[in-house]
């Protein structure tokens, strides 16, 4: 994965122009390399764009600040979401991605920032695969998400993303018109093989809209 001087440190690997671009968003303490293998399993021919979380929590990279475990700094979530959306615009221009289909793949904190992108900046992201995500902002704006598709995989015993805020995310997306597919597994804060297989099937099923962003 090569890097260039854009507003976020990142990795980039060119793939087929005929395949969607995957935006890989790591979890807390991760790096741009973390989800490369996962992205290649989902779509082996895809171009991979993997930024690094810009926030440091005791040396661990994150996408936004939190006040405590499971308690997000809402103002920072919003600011960092716009930062990531602006980076995506830069990357589209810099790498010549144009209006190619873009699908986010995120785990944990990375899944939460992807969820925030779909809710706050839907013009920047209309498709997302979210592992262990929950509602990132209370009372998100009432954007029209009729062109948005989201896949979620969550553990029923996940102490970091409990079922209630997971359900709140699903409700927020669906109330705004997004098409949501929700997968549950009996485990915890993890990506399961079954969840990955379900995500691959969802990914291959269709897109939010050809030529849209």
Secondary structure elements and their pairing?
Layout: E1 10-13, E2 21-25, H1 36-42, E3 47-51, E4 55-57, E5 60-62, E6 66-68, E7 71-72, H2 74-94, E8 102-107, H3 109-120, E9 127-131, E10 149-155, H4 163-175, E11 179-185, H5 193-205
Parallel strand pairs: 2-3, 2-8, 8-9, 9-10, 10-11
Antiparallel strand pairs: 1-3, 4-5, 6-7
Polypeptide structure, described:
The chain has 213 residues and is an alpha/beta fold. It has one domain: Rossmann fold, CATH 3.40.50. The strands form three sheets. Strands 1-3-2-8-9-10-11 form a seven-stranded mixed beta sheet, with helices on both faces. It has a two-stranded antiparallel sheet with strand order 4-5. Helix 2 packs across helix 3. The longest helix has 21 residues. The protein is globular and about 40 Å long. It starts with 9 loop residues before the first strand and ends in an 8-residue tail after the last helix. The relative contact order is 0.15. The C terminus is likely disordered.
For the termini, the CA-CA separation is: 24 Å
What spatial order of strands do you see in the largest sheet?
A: 1-3-2-8-9-10-11
Helix and strand content put the structural class at alpha/beta
Count of distinct structural domains: 1
Helicity, in percent? Answer: 25-40%
- Indicate the CATH architecture: 3-Layer(aba) Sandwich
Shape: globular
Task: Write a concise keyword list for the protein shown above.
213 residues, alpha/beta, Rossmann fold, seven-stranded mixed sheet, two-stranded antiparallel sheet, 5 helices, 31% helix, disordered C terminus
